[in-house]
Amino acid sequence: MNLTILGCYAATPRTFTNPTSQVLEIRNRLFLIDCGEGTQVQLRKNKIRFSKINHIFISHLHGDHFFGLIGLISTFALLNRVTDLNIYGPKGIKEIIQLQLKLSNSWTSYGLFFHELESKETRIVFEDEKVMVKTIPLKHRVYTNGFLFQEKIRERKLNIEAVEKYGIEKCYYQNIKNGKDIILESGELIENHLITSDPVLPMSYAFCSDTAYNESIIPMINNVDVLYHEATFLDSEAKLAQKTMHSTAKQAATIAFKANVKKLILGHYSTRYESIEIFRTEAEVIFQNVLLAEDGKSFEF
Amino acid sequence: MNLTILGCYAATPRTFTNPTSQVLEIRNRLFLIDCGEGTQVQLRKNKIRFSKINHIFISHLHGDHFFGLIGLISTFALLNRVTDLNIYGPKGIKEIIQLQLKLSNSWTSYGLFFHELESKETRIVFEDEKVMVKTIPLKHRVYTNGFLFQEKIRERKLNIEAVEKYGIEKCYYQNIKNGKDIILESGELIENHLITSDPVLPMSYAFCSDTAYNESIIPMINNVDVLYHEATFLDSEAKLAQKTMHSTAKQAATIAFKANVKKLILGHYSTRYESIEIFRTEAEVIFQNVLLAEDGKSFEF
Questions:
Q1: Domain A2-154+200-300 has CATH 3.30.1330.10
Q2: Which of chain A's residues have a Cβ under 8 Å away from the Cβ of B13?
Q3: Interface of chain B against chain A, CB under 8 Å?
Q4: What's the pTM?
Q5: Candidates B70, B92, B141; nearest CB to A67
Q6: In what order do the strands lie in the sheet with B85-90?
Q7: Of B11, B12, B71, which is closest to A63 when you measure between CB atoms?
Q8: Residue B193's CB: how many other CB atoms inside 10 A?
Q9: Is B120 exposed, middle or buried (0-12, 13-18, 19+ CB in 10 A)?
Q10: Least Cα separation, residue A289 to chain B (angstroms)
Q11: Which member of B14, B74, B96 has the closest CB to residue A44?
Q12: CA–CA distance, B58 with B206 (Å, rounded to integer)
């Protein structure tokens, strides 16, 4: 699982900082999460191939999370993209994009599918044989969802030496990888654990931005490998965080601790702070494994 | 008169090139012309004060000319702007902006006024005591206007030595600067030209992008000091230019020559060309005074 941060600052794009956007690669699938202004240039700078992006998840309709979407959609069309593109985001996003395409008299060369969200409960929004994506309802000034990316349980690993020892034919391998026991021609039962080993544990990633401190998300993100939680402010601005329905670094760490996640990535920093290192310092008092998002940084998990 | 190019490339923003946007400063007024994605960052990079921008002119609703507008409008609000902002652009622009503000539940802290254009004839869209702005109807795939910025004729320059010699009182100075003759108490008539000199000639700037080759604009831009004319392609792509309703460098130069302008700035280059110098070479065969737009370049006239 690989995460590339394209932008991790709040509010407005600036000379050296970008609004929210990130690319999650999991089981060879690429998911673009949020798309602030300038995302298409950040994708180019980080050498992420446009053609690999087929699914875009938008958390909410504040500009720093979606103003780059129309530009990316248009660029895909200018590049004569043919593959379908799926957009998952709050109700209204389809109207915004379609109005702009209509008024510019330009239509996409590819299938553009909107999956509009309006439920306040968690929903499965994407699923294939390897990955599932669910919404994580968040608390913010407008309707907002985080997203939980879960790798599905992998096949058991075949112990080639063992299956050959028992003379098991190749046509049974898939059943064995799926966990089935085998009865040999001699009638002997070979239990699965004798010819396989446990698969690599499935990975999970939770993106939670923007949100006020909200303990109700804990059951959903319990034990995830990586939690990206917004930390717009430091504890010194806790009142402002509450008023604007954002979180502090301390609150993000508290959620990480209570949800027993393995790693916490902080991001969505207000541009008022000169250094982001202090976010880590504040969070580490409560939760040990803290990473700091930075524009252009990649994390391998 | 000062012109700063924020972006001068066609189609999509890329790592080192920006879509159309430019700032014209004329008689201490700042006019933002077009607003492709990333314009707000380009304004920051070029140290142009956001608070000086009160009038934004949008030529047409193709993304590379206006996708940065909603971001700029939102940023102004986040910065608690109070001064009115005026947007001049094709019908539909108000709906696009207002829909996005509504869905993000964010409203501007300042007066946001839309002046929607739909006439196919030239119209005065802005006028104050020093500057007038008119539309230049262009030929493109969607409804498009160029803009003609005309400085008004300045007051005549007072010859202080001469007025003192005649003993003329200060209360008559404004009339003299306005071109009036003066009758002294002695009854002697002093003709205006004896006590003033000609004012600096008013400057004019014509922005013409995007457009197919279109001789009907010549009467409007005749004799302007500076013409910015799109040159998306070279003559080798003349057929493509015709099909997409763009111009070649040669065609831009032909318009400049026929309209007898003083200087021609080329821009809106297709990103297919490795060097832009060849645009100048091609244009100079027809018209001598050719300048090349470049992102971040300022021209003083």
A1: no
A2: 38, 40-41, 71
A3: 11-15, 37-38, 40-41, 44-45, 61-63, 67-68, 70-71, 74-75, 78, 90, 92-93, 95-96, 99-100, 103-106, 141-142
A4: 0.93
A5: B70
A6: B112-117, B85-90, B55-57, B29-33, B21-26, B2-7, B298-300
A7: B71
A8: 12
A9: exposed
A10: 33
A11: B14
A12: 14
What Cα–Cα distance (Å) separates residue A140 from each residue in A26, A212, A247, A281, B301?
Answer: 28, 6, 10, 25, 50
Return the residue matching tokens 């080993």: A197
Q: List the domain boundaries for chain A.
A: 2-154+200-300, 157-197
DSSP state of A200: P
Q: Does the distance separating the beta carbons of B13 and A71 come in below 8 Å?
A: yes
Residue A75's CB is within 10 A of a number of other CB atoms, namely 23
Taking the CB of residue A292, how many other CB atoms lie within 10 A of it?
19
- d(Cα B33, Cα B8) in Å, to the nearest integer? 11
Q: Tell me how close the Cα of A202 comes to any Cα of chain B, in angstroms.
A: 36
**B110-114 contacts at long range (C-beta below 8 A, 24 or more positions apart):** B110/B76, B110/B77, B110/B81, B110/B82, B110/B83, B110/B84, B110/B85, B111/B84, B111/B85, B112/B73, B112/B84, B112/B85, B112/B87, B113/B84, B113/B85, B113/B86, B113/B87, B114/B87, B114/B89
Chain B residues lying within 8 Å of A13, measured CB to CB: 38, 40-41, 71
Q: Note the CATH architecture for domain B2-154+200-293.
A: 4-Layer Sandwich (3.60)
Give the tens place of pLDDT for each residue, B161-201. 999 999 999 999 999 999 999 999 999 999 999 999 999 89
**Which structure tokens are listed for A266?**
């902080």
For an interface test with B, the pick among A6, A9, A12 (most B C-beta atoms closer than 10 Å) comes out as: A12
| Residue of B64, B210, B225, B295 with catalytic role | B64
Phi-psi map region of B106: left, alpha, beta (phi>0 left; psi -120 to 50 alpha): beta
Convert the pLDDT of each residue in A2-44 to its tens digit.
999 999 999 999 999 999 999 999 999 999 999 999 999 999 9
Best residue in B72, B75, B240, B244 to probe A by mutation, most A CBs within 10 Å?
B75
The total of other beta-carbon atoms located within 10 Å of residue B57's CB is 26
> Does pLDDT of B149 surpass 90?
yes
Is A64 among the residues known to form the active site?
A: yes
